[in-house]
Automatic annotation (TrEMBL):
One of its GO terms (molecular function) is sulfotransferase activity. The keyword Acetylation does not apply. Keywords: Transferase. This is Sulfotransferase. The keyword Transferase applies. Its EC number is 2.8.2.-. It is an enzyme of class 2 (transferase). Residues 36-118 form the Sulfotransferase domain. It comes from Chrysochloris asiatica. Pfam families: Sulfotransfer_1. Belongs to the sulfotransferase 1 family.
Length: 124
């Protein structure tokens, strides 16, 4: 017996952990409003994602740099497709940092034609 469908969700050819993925967000990814000053950390799993999150947090958030605000990484640079804290991404103040393991074909179309910054595992 195969329990794959119990644990994994196949969305447009890409597998997500069913228990943690926000299906409504996935269905509306294409039209997510991208701001020009958004920063996306797009990496393969296990390729230094947390390091990139920490480094960019130090650059973008003075409170984190000065250790005056103890905010968890998942709150400073949340995973875009796994909205674990159920935060309102639209209400987040700019600049917004997001982390993702999404393949290019699932990325919001605004990310492909806006001025948002994309940091990949390869540093591009």
């Amino acid at each position: 017996m195969d329990d794959t469908d119990t644990y994994l969700l196949n969305f447009k050819g890409y597998y997500f952990q069913r228990a943690t993925v926000d299906i409504d967000l996935l269905e509306n990814l294409e039209d997510f409003e991208i701001r020009d000053d958004d920063v996306f950390i797009v990496t393969y799993p296990k390729s230094g994602t947390i390091w990139a999150q920490q480094i960019l947090s130090l650059i973008y958030f003075e409170e984190h740099r000065n250790r005056t605000d103890n905010v968890e990484t998942v709150d400073r640079a949340p995973f875009f497709e796994y909205n674990a804290r159920k935060m309102d991404f639209h209400a987040r103040p700019s600049p917004r940092l997001f982390t993702s393991h999404l393949p290019y074909y699932l990325a919001p179309k605004g990310l492909k034609n806006k001025k948002a910054k994309i940091k990949s595992a390869e540093g591009k």
